[in-house]
Amino acid sequence: MKRKKLLLPLAVGSTVLTSAIVASPAQAHGYVSNPPSRQAQCAQGIVPDCGNVKFEPQSVEAPKGSMLCNGGNSRFPELNDDSKAWRATPVGRNVTFSWALTARHSTSTWEYFIGDRRIAVFDDAGRQPNAIVTHTVDLSGYSGRQKLLARWNIADTAAAFYACVDLQVGGGTTPTTLPTTTPPTTTPPTTTPPTTTPPTTAPGTTGWQAGTAYAVGAVVSYSGTNYRCRQAHTALEGWEPASTPALWQRL
Predict the structure, then answer these.
(1) What Pfam families would the database entry show (predicted)?
(2) Closest alpha carbon to 232 in 13, 2, 35
(3) How big is the chain by its Cα radius of gyration, in Å?
(4) Alpha-carbon distance 122 to 119, whole Å?
(5) Per-residue pLDDT tens for 94-131?
(6) pLDDT tens-digit profile of 53-88?
(7) Which of 42, 86, 151, 242 could tie 111 with a disulfide, CB 3.0–4.6 Å?
């Protein structure tokens, strides 16, 4: 009896420890910010009724190998709904995809799919990526509206991060009309000095604010210092300008 009383607390403690390890979330997070992925469109308010992903677009994490936009993560079923008003970005045949990473984690590969076909793979061989990662993918052979799945495979866990990007391949790249008039050659140029446009600021505020979508060139203030946006993104807690030099340039 004494032996059983001693072993029971040990067994319970072991169970609690094991549960804590299993429940511990991965420390790597990220998503495709440009062209805007489905979760980016949710975070920016472009598409409504997105559920939880609106507040954490970087958290679409699931086991490796899925071909779903949410990777099979039951927290974000909205990402799989093709009937939503996802905005397709007009692109040419070569597209540069930009990932915004809230935590950098050793990486095995980055994969890109259209349908069931893998059209590009980039091997990081276990290296730790930068806060902003870009890949240029050749979309030759595709045209019209396409849904591209991007998958970030973590090197030292069984997890991957998923993002679907809606594209209009071949759209918006050819001029529709030629100029109908040419400037006169005999009239001297005007002497009016060119006007300068002040940097874009966040609507309604000059201070950095989580939940705001910032365009490249936007200027904000944070803790008494001004910063200019380097990469279009939706601000999240933990992405303050002082701690994310990949997103913000100190002025």
Answers:
(1) CBM_5_12 (PF02839), LPMO_10 (PF03067)
(2) 35
(3) 23
(4) 11
(5) 999 999 998 777 999 999 999 999 999 999 999 999 99
(6) 999 999 999 999 999 999 999 999 999 999 999 999
(7) 151
